[in-house]
Amino acid sequence: MSLNDPQWGNRGGDGGGGRRPNQGPPDLEQLWRDLNRRLSGIFDRKKPGGPRGDEPGDGGGRPPPIPFNFRFLGGGIGVLLALVLVVWLASGFYIVDESQRGLVLQFGRYKASVESGLRWRLPYPIQSHELVNVSGVRTIEIGYRGSEKNKVLKEALMLTDDENIINIQFAVQYILKDPVDYIFNNRNPDEAVMQVAETAIREIVGKNRMDFVLYEGREQIAVSAAKLMQDVLDRYKTGILISKVTMQNAQPPEQVQAAFDDAVKASQDRERQKNEGQAYANDVIPKARGTAARLMEEAEGYRQRVIATAEGDASRFRQVNTEYVKAPEVTRSRMYLETMQQVYSNTTKVMVDSKGQGNLLYLPLDKLLQAAGAGAAAAAAPASASEAPPPPRPAPAVANEVPPQVAEKSETRSRENLRQRDREAR
After folding, report:
1. Nearest Cα to Cα of residue 409 among 341, 334, 358
2. pTM above 0.85, yes or no
């Protein structure tokens, strides 16, 4: 059937080109004429010299119909296809930031990596691209989410070497060192990092005691965990570089927190007492060592002195013996006098006149000598002193004061008595 047939699409019509409901498809020719009329009206109104509907000969304001032509329709489709082609080719442009790397995929398979800037690839579905941030620091949290109060006990509870349970919370920071491995070798690399971190921490904690994990070994555990995690991630070729592992919190479980606090306090008291004892030992031991060294030095000095004295006495005795052989009487008298001098120099001396009937009963020679020495010292003091203390008063004698002449006579008499006794003894 021809499209120009006026009855096409108007079967059983009303003769006016109208269309009743449910009586076949619409009249395409009529639709085409209506479209031409509307387009012509729009273009004629825009032209300043174009025909208007109120001028004669314009057919009542309706433009002449344009005959339907498939060539015209084909030309419009070509323009539309060209436009679509341009848009499709333009969709291959993309921008890569400085912090990113671009991965070009051809039919879903990796083809090349591109640096930052404006880039172009073949449009989809031939090629596609992935933008990967290689400078940003990524962070995962193990044992908590957001803050330390939001605990994840499934991840935080771990068993130590001494069979104690502790609660550990830590964070892992990492960057990308190979975006190709990060995208294509792992389905979920962030989940892989979390599992590797938890595995590494559990292994290290399981090889150490609870006190080491909670106190002195926290930094060492973090360093060891970072090294172990990096080894595992490199083995799986994830393209991830661990930058830092931070221990946020490490403590015993809440159920035994009170008992653990008591144990910690007892341990601290023990350490305090040990430190006090060590401080006391550090104070006493050096003093004892110094006293021992001093006593040893004194004993050594005494030994040397006694030996030297004994050697000197032996030498003196040999010399005296030699002189005694030469002159026995003179040597005996000299030895007697020296011995008496030594004895009397260390004793208190009192002269008693037992035969005389004078008023002088006894004479304290020591007190007199002390008084004479004190007077000589006072006389030798510098006269320029403004306030010199008064000279010490001589000790009061039991008897009356004896003048120096009497003392000298008494001393002479005592010497004569000693010589007389010596002669009588001989």
Report:
1. 358
2. no
